[in-house]
Design brief:
137 residues, mainly beta, 1 helix, Plasmid pRiA4b Orf3-like domain-containing protein, MM3350-like_sf, Plasmid_pRiA4b_Orf3-like
């Protein structure tokens, strides 16, 4: 029997999301709760990138793949509704990948920029900042 991980108080993760191998640079900044499940993060990324969620995808985090299984697609060992970002105990500056549409090869590099305290009045789980050209930050 595996011992449960000690509970970690949720915080806000500030994530910088960069679409690899595209010029000009396309990036997003996302603020979201650390206890979000990766199934929900997948849905948010689809919206942020204006994608249609009609292709296979996977997250690669700490050398392991995670995602929502689809008929005829990749099978994953873990239920993406039960796997939360906080489970990975990411450090500032740490990166992981989100791949979408394997035939087109869209790869998002997601970096944890900061951890922020959750204000008591904060209801929304996500907030975004969008930039589609290179520049500072």
């Amino acid at each position: 029997m595996v011992a449960p991980k000690p509970a970690v108080a949720p915080c806000i993760y500030q994530l910088r999301i960069v679409l690899r191998d595209i010029s000009p640079l396309i990036w997003r900044r996302l603020w979201g709760r650390s206890d979000v499940c990766i199934a929900d993060l997948h849905a948010v990324l689809q919206i942020l990138m204006d994608w249609s969620d009609t292709h296979l995808h996977r997250f690669s985090i700490h050398g392991k793949d995670y995602g929502i299984a689809r008929l005829g697609g990749i099978a994953f060992a873990d239920d993406p509704r039960q796997v939360r970002l906080t489970d990975f105990r990411l450090h500032r500056g740490e990166r992981f990948l989100y791949e979408y549409d394997f035939s087109d090869g869209w790869v998002l590099e997601i970096r944890l920029e900061d951890r922020l305290h959750i204000p008591a009045h904060r209801e929304q789980p996500f907030r975004r900042n969008v930039n589609t050209h290179s520049g500072s930050t």
